[in-house]
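Onboarding guide, step 5: your first structure request.
Type a short instruction followed by the sequence, for example:

Predict the 3D structure of this protein.
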Amino acid sequence: MLLTNILKLILTRRWNPFIFYKPQKEVELKYNSGEIGLYIHIPFCKSICSFCPYFKVLYNEDLANFFINALIKEIKIVSERYPKKITSIYFGGGTPALLIEKLGNVVTEIRNSFDVENNFAIELHPDNLENEILSQLKENGFNMISIGVQSFSENCLKNLGRDKENIEEKLERVRKFQFDVVDVDLIFGIPGQTEDDLEYDFDKAVELGATQISTYPFIDFSYSKNKNKPLGRSQKKKMLNRLSEVSEKNNFERTSVWTFAKKGSSKYSSVTRDSFIGLGPSAASLADNFFKVNTFSVEEYIKSIEMGKNPTCLVMKFDFRTRAAYWLFWSCYNIEINSDSFNELFNETLAEKYSWELKILEKLRFLEKYPTGYRLTERGAYYFHLVEQKYTHQYIDKTWRMALENPWPEKIELY
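The system replies with structure tokens like these:
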């Protein structure tokens, strides 16, 4: 907690907490960036994994039908208010492919409502890797997929509450569909996991056609019902070091603190971009002037849309320092702090606004200069890994827990 408070003070020049509040009226989001992503949250799952912190509910066909109708209405409403040009689409969850028969209607509405320039991406459960589902995804224009494998080790999966279920065979099936990006999600720090287990998982993912491997530390959220707790800091540090070694061995490169991609391949990410619009329950939107979050309730989301009301439950107003701190945080997560991107988004010069901070980080060997700005060193990436976990516990955990407890919270203060 001390670490995140010090960083907040340095970057935002404030002791006061970040405050999310319940909006009394619609807030007008402003977007100056030319790179705007669209995130669609599909909250349904066949079963609930305790290790997953994201908002999800058990699949119910009637509720899913009402949800899809509401989602299409929200797409129409949002497209009339905000920029038409969208550079990427990301379907997350939940398990979006559970609604595969209805996703075509959603994609059609997106294409009719927005000017989509680039990638269509979607998260998949290993159970979704069936020929019919993969064919429909290709037909609907999805060119990037992310598969929640978590581990190829039967013991590790058992400690996560998952079954192995012929994952290798299912991944082999993906090859013939020739997606531009095949991301495989792995978790490290699972109870009972060893460095050798993690290296095996990485090698196996590469062998089975992964072009990108996202490796996330096992984090125990306060509202999760994990029977087993994550491994300690020193063990996770050894695992991160092993990931760096095994990625280089496989001709992969680090593209974020926890992500490695095949050299020369396209990169896949969800909301790690300068600006995005979120649709669906629990989805967040990042604009120049506000950060806003939709209600964490499928029923309340549907009810709001049907009544012509805004499904937003929380907003945080940005001042320059807070918005810039958010940008810097996620730029560090993506390894690169791009000076031109900062200048374009804020009409300010990065070197002038953060002159002494950047110099100190260079002296500490956390950053090194690049032609485009700065990049995190291996040392910097490790320490940011620690910061990211503290941030998750201090800010994200509290916000999501309170939003789950009350679909319309009055205020959340984040110290």
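Each response can be followed by summary notes, for example: The longest strand covers residues 115-124.
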